[in-house]
């Protein structure tokens, strides 16, 4: 089967296969329909879709219409969706599967909600509509500086922070990763990460550059993945560590499928025992380190290097510079931990902040920022060894990484503080063998003599947070530890 896009249509669930020529035609036609719906240059168009053929079409169509794509996580609660849309500046349109239109129009009246099948011109049975002669040549070419997508990631405030990605950012990333992993048109990538996640978005653009096949799946099922890989339908997949653990459990001790060439693993640090087990079973693990502000991958170790140097995320990608900065602002020596700094064409344009030593108050800078000399300060800790390999060793900030999802404590604290019986909250990550970290909350009740119940608080949070962001453990305590300035001393927090 030739390269293209395979998956189920959101409208009918029918499996379809489109060539890249089909996708090009569909993207042009969808761009025209967006223009007819009132979308103009610079407008934001949000999509609330899992990985799907329609999502791939819209990721290409929206920039062709001169607009900016805002992929949203289909697992968000209504409250999280509303916060995200506000952070993104209230886009002109929100495109969703037809069955969700009425509910979202009621809950989010300030945003125009449109069914995806009104924009993506596909018949119910999955056939393409005839090409529209008005389309070809109607839209300008993209330039490296053209903004094409905005991803929402939590900043130091715990609120969604929009990160703009340009055509140049995504293409530089796609070419560098393709070169590092030696990708070609015969590859068949399983796309199961949300396009609202930078890894999911980058995968879809990367396949376009290479001309390989994308096999989309709205949800990740380890057994389905194994079945498809064993019959040669998949050669590559991007996972986070908790997904790999589930795959190994489903495989029940068997080695990797013969045709599987690469399991790209990122989003969180991979626990050593999990990596050891995968390598022992001869799984082709590729470890990568990256972040949204660098358009996904910064450094990547292909499977052969992971077997030789387990735990390293490899060398920086072509065109990407990485250095490790010590606590005093100087360069850390070989093998010495420090903050990871990144520079290159994949780094997004953020408002610059002075680096340490330039007279800025460090408490006023976000945890991830671009210094005035062009270096992205990631907030992550690591070291470069004598061979130029990068080893990621931790995080400078208080971020919690659970199952590949980045969670700021403040966003969970903000929700729990909405409970009428809560006075103060501190949220932290505690070690977890499966998820990397588990979200835990320490709660000070408003009335110590009549505190809310633990189960009541967990249920309250669950109704307002996506599953990946909910606290899994919670304790009622008398007070939070504070430093001399009256701020919560996070170093002394213990669950």
Indicate the proportion of strand residues: 25-35%
Q: What class, by secondary structure content?
A: alpha/beta
Order of strands in the sheet with most strands? 2-1-10-9-11-12-13-14-15
Main sheet attributes: strand count, strand direction, barrel closure: 9 strands, mixed
How many strand elements? 26
- The CATH topology of the domain at 4-219 is Rossmann fold
The helicity comes to 25-40%
Q: Categorize the overall geometry.
A: globular
- Let me know the CATH homologous superfamily of the domain at 4-219: ANL, N-terminal domain
What is the top-level CATH class of the domain at 4-219? Answer: Alpha Beta
Would you identify the CATH architecture of the domain at 4-219? 3-Layer(aba) Sandwich
Assembly context of the chains: single chain
Radius of gyration based on Cα positions: 23 Å
Average of the residue pLDDT scores: 88
The poorly predicted ranges are: none
Number of helical stretches of at least 4 residues: 12
Distance between the termini: 53 Å
């Amino acid at each position: 089967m030739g390269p293209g896009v395979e998956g189920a249509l959101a409208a009918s669930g029918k499996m379809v296969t489109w060539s890249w020529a089909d996708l090009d035609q569909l993207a042009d036609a969808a761009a025209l329909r967006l223009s007819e719906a009132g979308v103009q240059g610079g407008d934001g168009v949000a999509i609330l879709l899992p990985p799907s053929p329609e999502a791939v079409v819209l990721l290409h169509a929206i920039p062709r219409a001169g607009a900016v794509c805002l992929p949203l996580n289909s697992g968000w609660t209504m409250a999280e969706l509303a916060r995200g849309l506000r952070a993104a500046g209230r886009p002109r349109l929100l495109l969703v599967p037809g069955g969700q239109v009425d509910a979202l129009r009621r809950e989010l009246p300030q945003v125009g909600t449109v069914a995806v099948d009104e924009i993506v011109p596909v018949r119910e049975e999955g056939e393409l509509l005839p090409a529209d002669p008005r389309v070809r040549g109607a839209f300008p070419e993209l330039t490296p500086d053209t903004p094409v997508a905005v991803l929402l990631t939590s900043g130091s405030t715990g609120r969604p922070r929009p990160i703009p990605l340009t055509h140049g950012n995504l293409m530089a990333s796609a070419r560098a990763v393709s070169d590092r992993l030696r990708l070609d048109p015969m590859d068949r990538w399983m796309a199961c990460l949300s396009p609202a996640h930078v890894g999911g978005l980058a995968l879809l653009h990367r396949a376009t550059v290479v001309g390989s096949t994308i096999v989309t799946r709205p949800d990740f099922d380890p057994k389905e993945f194994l079945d498809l890989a064993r019959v040669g339908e998949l050669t590559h997949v991007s996972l986070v560590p908790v997904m790999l653990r589930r795959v190994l459990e489903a495989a029940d001790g068997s080695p990797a499928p013969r045709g599987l060439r690469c399991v790209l693993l990122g989003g969180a640090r991979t626990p050593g025992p999990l990596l050891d087990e995968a390598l022992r079973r001869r799984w082709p693990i590729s470890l990568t380190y990256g972040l949204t502000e660098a358009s996904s991958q910064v450094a990547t170790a292909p499977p052969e290097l992971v077997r030789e140097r387990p735990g390293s995320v490899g060398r920086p990608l072509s065109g990407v510079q990485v250095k490790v900065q010590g606590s005093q602002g100087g360069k850390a020596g070989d093998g010495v931990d420090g903050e990871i700094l990144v520079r290159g064409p994949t780094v997004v344009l953020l408002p610059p902040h002075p680096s340490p030593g330039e007279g800025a108050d460090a408490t006023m800078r976000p945890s991830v920022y671009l210094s005035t000399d062009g270096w992205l300060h990631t907030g992550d800790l690591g070291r470069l060894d004598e061979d130029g390999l990068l080893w990621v060793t931790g995080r400078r900030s208080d971020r919690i990484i659970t199952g590949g999802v980045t969670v700021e404590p403040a966003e969970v604290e903000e929700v729990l503080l909405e409970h009428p019986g809560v006075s103060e909250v501190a949220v932290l990550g505690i070690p977890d063998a499966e998820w990397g970290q588990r979200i835990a909350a320490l709660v000070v009740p408003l009335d110590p003599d009549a505190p809310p119940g633990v189960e009541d608080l967990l249920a309250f949070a669950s109704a307002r947070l996506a599953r990946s962001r909910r606290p899994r453990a919670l304790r009622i305590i008398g007070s939070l530890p504070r430093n001399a300035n009256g701020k919560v001393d996070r170093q002394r927090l213990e669950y």
